[in-house]
Specification:
This protein is an all-alpha fold. Helix 9 packs antiparallel against helix 10. The longest helix has 25 residues.
């Protein structure tokens, strides 16, 4: 019986794997690609993931295929290095994620009853606990990667703790804790001990991450939105003064603040 023709996706994936193998060839490959290691490539992997997120955030769907391709290439790169060391190959990577998705969706691939999104999320967490136990990760916080961005890791740590009941009951309690941390930070300001200030600012940020979690918000997305809003308003303020022939460096803080408030007023007017 003839084999079915490979799909375009299968053809292109095979081509990408072959390209990666050629790049890593110690004789005929690329000198840069050949000397890379898991450690040297890992930062690029993180960077590419952020570039995917940026294309999505800016709704640049023209750039998104290219950014997703860059991220896929990182997976292929790691898999190729592992294959060369006899650890695993790309097929093992795809097998494990496929098996995991089937295992975590018994309502789709098995006999379990259909669940709503909330119930499925709870079941997903139970499944992940079982998977961690199988890896002998028995502690509640085991397996939360230390290399995650700090705000993301804070949410994951506190979400894990919340699953066993170590959590505030309400948003109001988180806000009360936030007030407490602000007071503690104020108390440390006169001494200006860098280590103590770092500790208190860290506590403040940690509680803010908890607040976002309790409000069902992603703190990274919240901060990214705030960053973009600040940049948008600052650029508009600067453009306003530049059009008047004035440089920000020659203006007083009070004058810049007035320009900032003008920009905010214009934004509110445009939205209304």
């Amino acid at each position: 019986m003839p084999h079915p023709a490979a799909s375009p996706a299968e053809v292109e994936l095979r081509r990408l794997l072959d390209i990666m193998a050629r790049l890593r060839d110690p004789v005929t490959g690329c000198a840069w690609d050949h000397v890379q290691t898991f450690d040297t490539i890992a930062p690029y992997t993180i960077e590419e993931a952020y570039e995917v997120a940026d294309a999505i955030a800016t709704r640049d769907f023209t750039a998104l295929p290219d950014e997703l391709g860059d991220l896929l290439f990182q997976v292929v790169f790691h898999a190729r290095m592992a294959e060369e060391e006899g650890r695993f190959d790309f097929a093992e990577v795809t097998r494990q994620i496929a098996d995991k998705m089937v295992r975590r969706h018994p309502h789709v691939f098995g006999d379990a009853a259909v669940r709503d999104a909330e119930t499925q999320t709870a079941a997903w967490e139970v499944q992940k606990i079982a998977e961690r136990a199988a890896k002998q990760q028995t502690g509640t916080l085991d397996g939360v990667p230390t290399a995650l961005p700090a705000l993301i890791r804070a949410v994951k740590l506190t979400r894990r703790a919340a699953h066993i009941g170590f959590d505030w009951d309400s948003v109001e309690q988180v806000l009360a804790k936030l007030d407490e941390e602000i007071r503690e930070l104020r108390d440390e300001l006169p001494a200006a001990d860098p280590a103590r200030l770092q500790d208190e600012v860290g506590d403040l940020l940690f509680v803010l991450a908890n607040l976002a979690r309790k409000l069902k918000l992603d703190p990274e997305t919240c901060l990214r939105h705030a960053n973009e809003k600040f940049a948008r308003r600052f650029n508009a303020m600067e453009a306003k003064f530049t059009a008047e022939g004035r440089s920000l460096s020659e203006l007083s803080l009070e004058r810049m603040e007035a320009g900032w408030q003008d920009v905010k007023t214009q934004e509110r007017t445009a939205r209304s």
